[in-house]
Amino acid sequence: MNPVVVGISGASGSVLALRTVEELLRRDVPTAVVCTQAARLVWQEELDTPFSSTLAQWREHPHFTSYGIGDLRAPIASGTYPTCGMAIVPCSMNSLAALAHGLSSNLLLRAADVCLKENRKLVLVPRETPLHSIHLENMLTLARMGAVVMPPQPAFYLKPRSMDDLVRFTVQRVLVALGVEQALPPDLQYREKEE
Ligand SMILES: Cc1cc2nc3c(=O)[nH]c(=O)nc-3n(C[C@H](O)[C@H](O)[C@H](O)COP(=O)(O)O)c2cc1C
After folding, report:
1. I need a labelling partner for 40 at 20 to 30 A (CA). Which of 50, 58, 67, 141 fits?
2. Residue 192 reports pLDDT greater than 90
């Protein structure tokens, strides 16, 4: 199986990246990670652990690979290297803007740009609030180019009770959007109430 690329940028929501990678590795899906400098800062802030420690744990998995943000010679920087697509989770407004304008100044952006030009799955989990018109226009541009734009918003009708419920919902939706899962688990599907 070709790898799924997970790009981690510096928006709030490091736990979403953590759980996405964990879920991919739990399924033995080959996973290639690239993380921006800002994402490392947010990781420390939100998870109280250095990103390098998490990386060291992930590296114990035989299907895990990671690349440096400046490594533009990494295979995922080329359209000739086959992948099963990419998720940017969480996606900062900075990376979103660069991507919407075809800028590829680091490996995360280049790998995502490759997905767009090769018509591969690209799942974006943008996190910011409130959103101004440029944020919204950039999302529209990318949606029109085929990206799936999936803000980490709860399905209130599922009555989430904890942070874990919220995170699990978003991560499962990312896995479905990537095609790693065919459908959401039954407890995350909307069901008609029995009379
Ligand atoms: C603790 C923290 C939280 C942040 N949260 C967000 C956020 O939710 N959304 C966002 O777009 N930027 C957020 N930022 C700002 C980005 O990290 C910043 O714009 C950075 O330049 C993004 O760079 P990158 O796209 O290369 O990761 C946050 C920064 C910090 C330090």
Report:
1. 141
2. no
